[in-house]
Amino acid sequence: TKLGVRNPHDAHESIEGGARWLALGFRELGKKDYRLLAKWYNCGGPNLRKNPRCGDDYWSTVKNNMKEFKL
Prior knowledge:
Radius of gyration: 13 Å
Distance between the termini: 31 Å
């Protein structure tokens, strides 16, 4: 596939594919806005452009995890 994941159940392939997806998001967004990047990661760029509220609930989860893990 585009992200290099042939077997989504293979942890190594999935993590690398997720990292590639994040890199695409960083390149598309051009800034370090973690809220927007988390929403972009969850919804995908085209969906987020159509609906800017897409991923709001996902960002809440990410933010809580960042606090819990002190990131």
